[in-house]
Amino acid sequence: MTQALLLVDVQNDFSPSGALPVVDGDQIVPVINRLIPHFKHIVATKDWHPAGHSSFASSNQQNVGEVIVLDGIPQIMWPDHCVQDSEGAEFISGLNVEAITKVIYKGTNPKIDSYSGFFDNQRLQATGLADYLHSKGIKELAIVGLATDYCVKFTALDAVSLGFKTTVVQDACRGVEMVQGDVESAWKQMKQVGCKLIQSEDITG
Ligand code: VGL
Ligand code: ZN
């Protein structure tokens, strides 16, 4: 069965010096680079927000970390991050970007956030990721990236719901942990729906 490596939001703004810092977020880069040669298809998502995105605290006169209701669903207020064409939206330096065979952009709708690489948070629009994977005959995914408790989690849950055989490589992910325990509970949820949780060494040997 054809398996793809799916890189979720390995972008500067999620590195420790970025706008929405993830502790040790940059530490996954060498791990991902070691995984890459084991896959034919390397697909990456990019969080790709227009300036003034509705998930930004600054767009709503809110404080970062506050939760507001946007179009009927709870929305965490984030710092401005991953603005289209900004340095913060670039892949973290050192990542083997030449190996990436496809980039999928998400969070582009100014009014709706998108944690999953497959759909926006309202599930109104698909990003094209599922269609792309189907077009290549890819039925299995190994997921890595940032952040474990947001985009990695929601991407993995959607992957399972769409019928992909889904593995998540734990040491190639890091989380935001806005609330203590979020990362642990994210792993639990992924496991519960049927994601296989592994370590990179299980692939690289
Ligand atoms: C993410 C919060 C906001 C992520 C993206 O990539 O996990 N988290 N936007
Ligand atoms: Zn975002």
- Portion of residues within helices: 10-25%
Reading side by side through the largest sheet, how are the strands ordered? 5-2-1-6-7-8
Ions, cofactors, ligands: which are bound? pyrazine-2-carboxylic acid, zinc ion
The fold-level CATH name is Rossmann fold
CATH class: Alpha Beta
- The value of Rg in angstroms is 16 Å
Query: How many extended strands?
Result: 8
- Secondary-structure element sequence? EHEEEEHEHEHEH
Main sheet summary = 6 strands, parallel
Work out the strand percent: 15-25%
Low-pLDDT windows of residues? none
Structural domains: how many: 1
Q: What is the name of the CATH superfamily?
A: Isochorismatase-like
Please provide a written account of the structure.
The protein is globular and about 50 Å long. It has a single domain (2-50, 86-204), classed as Isochorismatase-like (Rossmann fold). The model has no long low-confidence stretch (mean pLDDT 97). With 205 residues, the chain is an alpha/beta fold. The strands form 2 sheets. Strands 5-2-1-6-7-8 form a 6-stranded parallel sheet. A two-stranded antiparallel ribbon has the order 3-4. The protein starts with a strand and ends with a helix. The chain is built from 5 helices and 8 strands; from the N terminus they run E-H-E-E-E-E-H-E-H-E-H-E-H. A hairpin with a 2-residue loop joins strand 3 and strand 4 (73-76). The chain binds pyrazine-2-carboxylic acid and zinc ion. Zinc ion binds at residues 47, 49, 55, 81-82, 107. Residues 9, 14, 47, 78, 146-147, 150-151 line the site of pyrazine-2-carboxylic acid. This is nicotinamidase. Its EC number is 3.5.1.19. InterPro entries: Isochorismatase-like_dom, Isochorismatase-like_sf, Isochorismatase_Nicotinamidase. Residues 4-202 form the Isochorismatase-like domain.
